[in-house]
Structures are given as structure tokens and as C-alpha cells.
Amino acid sequence: MNLVGLALRNLRRRPVRTGLSILGIGLAVGSALALIALSRSIQDSSREAINELGDDFVVTQKGASDIFGGFIPESTIARVAAIPGVARVSGELFMFAPSADQRSVLTLGWPDTSYLWSKVPLREGRLPGPGERHVAVLGDTAAASLGKKLDDELELVGETFRIVGISNYATVINRGLVLVPLIDLQEASYRMRQVTVIHVNVERGGVQLGRVRMEIEALGNVTAATADEMLKNDRNLAILDAVSLAISIIAVAMGALSVLSALVMATQERTREIGIFAAIGWSNARIMVSIVLEGMLMCAIGCVTGVLLSFLAAFAFPHIPAIGNLISFKPSLALIAPVLGAACALCLIGSLLPAWRAIRMVPAEALRRL
Amino acid sequence: MGEAIVRGSGSDKSSESGPLIALRGVSRVYDGGTIAALRNIDLQIAAGDCLAIVGASGSGKSSLVNLLCGIDHASAGTVLWEGRALRTQRAWARLRRLDIGIVFQEFNLIPTLTALENVEVALFGRGLSAARRLARAGVVLDRVGLEHRMHSLVTTLSGGERQRVAIARAIVNRPKLLLADEPTGNLDSASAAIIADLMFRLREDAGMTLILVTHDDALAARCPRRVRIKDGVIVEDTREPMAPRLIETTPRQAASPRAAPPQAAPPQAAP
């Protein structure tokens, strides 16, 4: 038996204490990972959705506080298209449109000539034909959550649309979209000849993105931004980010306290044992190594448990419609590394502090502890 | 009775070759000096001595034994080991690892370990391989009659068996000094007799110094030297011939010159 063997025996032969400590660490790590991942998922989901449409720039009204808040005259689309280096453009009007059962669905209106229609991944049905009115293509999760299928009718903002296609985008937000002809949404929302954003694709090979961007902005009263920049400047998302940051801090603080508590309790109740080791002549260094080894073993198992729990949550959340239809939840490796690093540091402190206090006691005092 | 009360005196042996352990003006107070457990103690214990520290509950016996093995520190005075003052916990830890074995009333075994493992941990830090540690621990457990329970968790052992494990752990390093603090205090009378016999026999065989703290006068009577403590002060330090029962239960003792008390055993008690 060596010190590792001693630590393993201690853990194995105190199954309740070990199990509870590991569970405490695992829940702390798992919940921290899950909450941080969730808090980031709102922005990540929005970014993924925009990127899936394949834009170089998104043009919005200058000074608009958020992506829903600005409106651009439809005539601007042609002016942007005329800028050298711009390959294609499409206007887009979007809104959360109330459906018949008072549920709001994210609805996008595209001109029937928009290149965006050609990029829709259809699962079934077809796209709207040129000039066709009051038809809709639903994302697969939107269809599922609304309980609609091909040829069903869908009421949006008081207008009736016939479902002609079901799309199967990859990203969560796009899977929840309802796509309709721009003119229908403009009429229904009293936004005639207005769009919310203009999608811009730039020609490949030698075109300077910076120049194109400057020329777009020179048109006046519009801002051209990449998806990341647009999300960064969006006030709604900034508020959500602040909330997310607060949730992350709370998650990390709760996790840290749980990890510290589990380790401190596990070590503190061993004060008498530490006294026994001291009484039989173990050096302080050997006692500390023994305690820390045990703590770090629990930490390692707890971290693995926590990561598994967070992935279990990642697997389960998409199956909960209220969550899975709105945001994606993916605990990434980049997120796991710092959380596990923090957990290990806390376990080290949680083991060292009570052990250090115990070895500073004279052994006789430690032996008197229950 | 034996010799006259000589407070702070040492044995004849100690005056010849220097004591194994000595206390000089040692006091131990608690709660900022409001409670004095030991007051100005002078005591010398020679190598090979067999000494009982007796006294009523709360008299300071355990405080004294804690100071003798360095698991507590003196508030005043000096503890000398083979003439050298030990001032750091590190030095005391090394001494306990190499030269002092302790047996506690409460056994103080690690509950998650087997009997064998409990003894083995006392050999950590001695530079022995795991195989040698286990072999040595096994031999000692065999010596205390626990060869059949060595792989049992100590929580499954009886009180007497646990104390035998504690004794095995205390002697596995072949210490010069074996300190036993009320070793039979938590045992029934049958187990207590077995444990007492075992300790005296081991002490005789190994020739180690034995300090036995007890409130049991019959057990103390088996030690040739008795130190009585009252209210934190040594009030009696008596040396007398080996008690008859010890001679009866340890027949090899008579043949061991190392273990012979300074005074000859009474002829009628000889085997």
C-alpha cells in the first residue's frame, strides 16, 4: 500500500461520505457547466442562425437599438445591390408574429425573387412560386410545435397562410422559423415598403470587404456589420448577455461553494485521523500529501461526474420544447477546461486548508476531536 | 512498600548512563493558565525501565504521557530525549516514527483500514518497500496473536483485538519506548488481562522501556516503578521488586538480564 492506495481505500471504505462528496462536486461542476453554457447559448444560437444564412454583412438601420427595432426603406436594397463588389442582396422583414393560438412565432418575409429562398433546405413540399401570396414554409420544429403539416392553414397576424413546405435547417432558431413572402408580412404588419435588415453577399476574390462596407454605410442612415458585430451591438442581446453573466457568476459561485464545502467537510471530519497519523510519527508533509491526494481523487471523479451530468442536460434539453425550440445548449470543450481547472483549484484549497489547520494543532488536540 | 518518596529522582541506571527521557521543570497549563494540568514536573526514566504512572482521573496522567511522546507541548520546562532537548514537532514526529510507540485507551486506529494496513502505516517513511512493510506488519500481528484477523477491517474486531492491533502498530518499529495510556481502560476484565500480559511479555522480549498510565492499582503493581500524580504534581516515585504476578506470567523475564529490575525478585516468587 502506498499513499494513493491509502487514499483509494479510504474512499472505497467510506462509500456514503465519498459518494456524497463526489456527488456534491459533480453537481457543482455540472450545474456550473450547464448554466454557463445556457447563458451563452442565446447569443450562440443567434450567431449560428445568421451564419447559416451565409451573409457577409447584415445591413440595419443606423442607431437601431436592437435587431427588431430598425427599419430600412425597401428602396435601399437596390442601392446596396448597385455597389461594386456586391454579389447579391436580399431584404428581410421579421417579427414575432402571433398565431391563432396566441403563440408568437419568429416570422421572416423575403421577396419572392430573393436568393435566400434558393438556400432553404427543404425537407418536404416546395418553395413559394413567383408572385404566389399567402403561402408559408415552416421550420421543422415550428411545424411540430404548432402541430402543422403540409397543406394545413396557419393564421399569422390575422392573415391565413397555406403551408407549402417544411424546411430542415440545422440551427435551433432557423428550425423554428416561419418563412412567408415579404409583401404578405409587410401588409399584415403595416410595414409597407420597409424591411428590417438587408442581407449582403460580397463577390469572392479580390473584393475588399472594408471598402464595400464603407460604401454601404455611405448610403446614409444604415450600418453594415458582420453577424458577430451586429449581435454585439444589439441592446436586447446586451441585456441578455448581462443576465447571462450574472447567471454565470452565480453558477460559478454556487459551484465553488459546493466544491469547497464538500472537500472541507470531508477533510474536517478526518481531524482525528490526522492526529493519529501525527501520533505514529508521520511528517506533516506526508499527512498533507495523503489528504490532498484523497481530495484530488474525489475531485477527479466528481469532475467526470459533473461533465457527464452537463452532457446529459445537453442531451435532455433539446427534447424539452420550451427550451429546445428556442436555444441550443452545447457545453463545449473550451468551456469545460476552465470550469474543471477552477474545480481542481478549489478542491486543492478545500483539502489543503483544513489539513493545514489540523497539522498545526498539536496531535493530542487533534486526537480529542470526534 | 518500596523506596522512600523521591520527587524528581531518576533510577540508578539513569544516573549511570543518562536517562532515556527526562522532564525538567515541566508544566502544562490550559486556558491561558487558568487550568494547570502539570506543575513543575521533574522526572527521569532510564532505558529499560518499567514504569507505571498512576493517579485519579484528572490528576494529570494523560497530560504527562502526552508530553513524554511529544503529542502535546509543555507550557514551561524541557523534555529531553537521551539528553537532547526536542523543540520542534518535526523532531518529535521523527522520534515517534523511530523510537516511540504509543498505545491509547481509545485505540486510535484508522477505521477504514484492516488490521494489517493499520500496522503497515506506522512503517511509512522508513524507506521500506511495500512488501517488506507488509511482511513486517504481518509478523508483528502474528506476535500479538492476530494472524487470523489481519485482513479484517478494524471496525469488525472486538475491543481486545483492536487494542492488540494498536500494540502491534506501536511496536512494529521496534521502539525504545512503549507508552501505554490506559490500555485496558476500555476493555472487559478478561481482555484487559490478556492485553496487560501481552504488553509485559513484549516489553520483556524486546527489552524496551515501558511507561504505563493507569488508574488500576493492580496493573500498576506489575511495574517495578510507580509514579503517582495528584493535582498535576508527582507525589510519589516508588521503586520496588517485580510484582509476583508479572514473574508468573512472564517466565522468560528471569533469564533476561536486560529486563531485571534493579532489586532482585523475592525468592518465593521465582519460578
Short description:
The complex is a heterodimer of chains A (370) and B (271). Chain A is α+β, with helices and mostly antiparallel strands. Chain A contains 15 helices and twelve strands.
Description:
The complex is a heterodimer of chains A (370) and B (271). Chain A is built from 15 helices and 12 strands. Chain A is α+β, with helices and mostly antiparallel strands and 370 residues long. The two termini of chain B are 22 Å apart. Chain B has one domain (48-71, 89-259): P-loop containing nucleotide triphosphate hydrolases (Rossmann fold, 3-Layer(aba) Sandwich). The model of chain B is unreliable at 1-16 and 243-271 (pLDDT under 50). In chain B, the strands form 2 sheets. In chain B, strands 6-7-8-3-9-10 form a 6-stranded mixed sheet. In chain B, strands 2-1-4-5 form a 4-stranded antiparallel sheet, with helices on one face. Chain A binds chain B through residues 1-3, 6, 9-10, 13-14, 272-273, 275-284, 286, 362-365, 367, and chain B through 66, 69, 71-73, 89-90, 93-98, 100, 102, 104, 106, 108-113, 117, 120-122, 124-125, 130, 133-134, 153, 169, 173.
